[in-house]
């Protein structure tokens, strides 16, 4: 009985926060699929990540608000490849795969479409299904981040960029150290659309460090 009441109270609090959230209301007014659009819009305004003609890979794309921002900022003159376990409703300029990025089939899908081409920007808003065990969830999240980083290092152009959602806490400094090994510049971004109480931040890596032929 107590546990059920706690869940109900928590659910009501979340729903109240959601329906009164100004970014949720703004997303509905502006036609974005989620409030997450404003996180990318703010980061792009500051760091100028998106421009016409780019090839963008969006990992953890559902429901597709970052794809919307990318298409708009590129003035529909570019290409977006998007992957998520959940479906992403079709939109012009975006190719989508409902699949698991941790599986080889998803990588094959990306590589088939990229052919020998390179990527200008890799976006990762991936997060694991939450188990409720903080340390386990944090570890699983950084496993996804490392997979996204490996992909970015392999496929980005020399002047490319990688933007990834992370959570401050266990694993953060270790992953930031990996980013610093992989990119000439690594920046931390906390957009206003990220809730203050959330440990969520974004790491932005720019200009991947050149690797030798042996992959190091």
Query: Could you say which structural class the secondary elements and strand pairing correspond to?
Result: alpha/beta
Stretches where pLDDT is under 50 for at least 5 consecutive residues are: 1-6, 212-216
Question: Can you name the CATH architecture of the largest domain?
Answer: 3-Layer(aba) Sandwich
Shape label: globular
Could you report the average pLDDT, rounded to the nearest whole number?
89
CATH superfamily of the largest domain: Vaccinia Virus protein VP39
Major sheet characteristics: 7 strands, mixed
**Count of helix runs:** 7
Total of domains? 2
Count of individual beta strands: 7
> For the largest beta sheet, what order do the strands appear in spatially?
3-2-1-4-5-7-6
Q: What distance lies between the first and last C-alpha atoms, to the nearest angstrom? A: 56 Å
Helical fraction: 40-55%
Proportion of strand residues: 15-25%
- Report the C-alpha radius of gyration, rounded: 18 Å
Task: List SSEs in N-to-C order.
Answer: HHHEHEEHEHEHEE
């Amino acid at each position: 009985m107590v546990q059920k009441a706690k869940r109900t109270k928590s659910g009501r609090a979340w729903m109240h926060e959601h329906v009164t959230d100004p970014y949720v209301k703004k997303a509905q007014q502006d036609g974005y699929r989620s409030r997450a659009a404003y996180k990318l819009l703010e980061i792009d305004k500051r760091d100028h990540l998106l421009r016409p003609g780019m090839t963008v890979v969006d990992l953890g794309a559902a429901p597709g608000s970052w794809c919307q921002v990318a298409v708009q900022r590129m003035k529909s003159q570019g290409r977006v490849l998007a992957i998520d376990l959940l479906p992403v409703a079709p939109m012009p300029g975006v190719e989508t795969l409902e699949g698991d990025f941790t599986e080889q089939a998803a990588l094959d899908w990306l590589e088939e479409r990229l052919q020998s081409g390179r990527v200008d920007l890799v976006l990762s808003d991936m997060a694991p299904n939450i188990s409720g065990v903080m340390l386990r969830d944090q570890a699983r999240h950084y496993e996804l981040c490392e997979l996204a980083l490996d992909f970015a290092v392999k496929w980005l152009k020399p002047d490319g960029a990688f933007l990834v959602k992370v959570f401050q806490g266990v694993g953060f400094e270790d992953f930031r150290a990996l980013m610093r090994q992989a990119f000439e510049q690594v920046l931390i971004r906390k957009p206003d659309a990220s809730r203050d109480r959330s440990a969520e931040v974004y790491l932005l890596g720019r200009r991947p460090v050149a690797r030798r032929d042996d992959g190091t």
